[in-house]
Amino acid sequence: MREIISAVLSDDASSEDYAALPVPDSYRGAFVRKDEAGMFEGLPSAAKDPAKSLHVGEVPTPELGPGEALIAVMASAINYNTVWSSIFEPLPTFGFLERYARTGPLAARHDQPFHVVGSDLSGVVLRTGPGVGRWKPGDRVVAHCLSVELESPDGHDDTMLDPEQRIWGYETNYGGLAELALVKANQLMPKPAHLTWEEAASSGLVNSTAYRQLVSRNGAGMKQGDVVLIWGAGGGLGSYATQIALNGGAIPVCVVSSEHKAELARAMGAELVIDRAAEGFRFWRDEQTPDAREWKRFGARIRELTGSEDPDIVLEHPGRETFGASVFVARRGGTVVTCASTSGFQHQYDNRYLWMGLKRVIGSHFANYREAWQANRLVTKGMVHPTLSTVHPLSTVGEAAREVHLNQHSGKVGILCLAPREGLGVTAPELRSRHEKAINRFRSSNLP
Ligand SMILES: NC(=O)c1ccc[n+]([C@@H]2O[C@H](COP(=O)([O-])OP(=O)(O)OC[C@H]3O[C@@H](n4cnc5c(N)ncnc54)[C@H](OP(=O)(O)O)[C@@H]3O)[C@@H](O)[C@H]2O)c1
């Protein structure tokens, strides 16, 4: 690995130099183990500690197939799917790998006793497989996490509809929390030149997801002036959704759970912020009974902030805890666009508010290549900024995932893989200096 790191740090290695670098037989990666998939059985979710299940160690380098690329990973990031993989909820991810393996001999590489996780990366292309023309060794890249086969006609309108669509590093092996990663070449996108490796690695998954949810015609089709209710505006998805809403001329109403995160939302430019903890919103009277009075109080609070307007769009992801409120507060004809159920996937809502209000619920999942590219383009142009708060070395990836699991973080938590320290990889310093303050808005902002 030392030769690879030297080539990247030298800044003047050619594509031929990279192609001549030896690829090691094994590399360090963060993985969960198949024989430990039952280790947390019987424990409540919050007691399942990713630091116990995420191991960092050597794994064999996979063979490179057609249409694929092997990447030297400089940095990666924790996503909530890293939490799901490492607490084995709602299912251990090994079932995904076994199913994938049954689709063909190349896919069989993914079924291993270990699962290298991680769905974000920034790095340098080391090798490309047969049939890859667009990318070459030495290209500085970020990767989005849609792995797709495209052999079925169903995926050719929107690749997210392909029946063999998978989230790389969650439903496939050889993910980004490692020194090397195996991706499909059509996951690659240019690395934003004004960002460090760790900043560049932090946006891909959440930024693309928020872009599809809000902007894409596959999502809510946001337009100027729309009021957009954003749950978790100080977290991963929400911090990008807030920026995307502001960029598009919409009016975000940011929900957070502390004054600290309220300040972060304001620092991004949001003016309307609700601190759900300080204002004591409790949408359930008990485990089985939603509290419609609280939905109404929440709706009234939104109207108070917006001058009596209801949200055109609600960006949903907390799930069970908030979904009933989201459906209630959306305006007549409005859209609730959901991509997750962090607090539970069995939702309850009052359907009268949906049909009588002619509202829509849209299911949204990650993004197709085009959407991910558009979202990355906004970062590349300095129109959306990373919300990186803290950075860990690969060796403490478990602790980093625990922070996210326990909601102790803000924005994104980065991981250094081959990058020997923070602050490296910037090749457009002028663009950076124009946006330095915005890029650093979330740095060191985690709660003590
Ligand atoms: N389908 C997809 O493609 C996709 C893509 C990305 C993420 N996701 C999913 O989306 C969810 C959020 O991901 P993320 O990266 O944004 O995670 P994150 O960084 O942990 O942020 C989530 C935010 O949600 C808020 N939150 C948590 N529990 C809540 C509750 N019970 N009620 C209201 N707000 C709550 C928290 O903010 P406050 O405490 O400040 O309110 C937190 O900051 C995860 O379940 C993830 O798996 C899905």
Q: How would you describe the oligomerization state of the chains in this entry?
A: single chain
Number of strands: 20
Poorly predicted regions are none
Mean pLDDT: 96
Distance linking N and C termini: 35 Å
Shape: globular
DSSP strand content:
15-25%
Rg result? 21 Å
Helix content: 25-40%
Bound molecules: NADP nicotinamide-adenine-dinucleotide phosphate
Specify the number of helices.
15
- Which structural class is indicated by helix and strand composition? alpha/beta
Q: What's the main sheet like? A: 7 strands, mixed
Task: Tell me what the structure shows.
The protein is an alpha/beta fold. 29% of the residues lie in helices and 21% in strands. It is built from 15 helices and 20 strands. It has helices at residues 2-10, 15-20, 50-53, 80-87, 94-101, 197-201, 204-214, 236-247, 259-267, 292-306, 323-329, 351-355, 369-380, 397-405, 429-439, and strands at residues 26-33, 55-60, 68-77, 114-116, 121-128, 140-143, 146-148, 165-167, 180-184, 188-190, 227-230, 251-256, 272-275, 284-286, 289-290, 313-316, 335-338, 360-363, 388-393, 412-416. The strands form 5 sheets. Strands 3, 5, 6, 9, 10, 19 and 20 form a 7-stranded mixed sheet that branches. Strand 19 (388-393), helix 14 and strand 20 (412-416) form a beta-alpha-beta unit. It is globular, with a radius of gyration of 21 Å. It starts with a helix and ends in a 9-residue tail after the last helix. Bound molecules: NADP nicotinamide-adenine-dinucleotide phosphate.
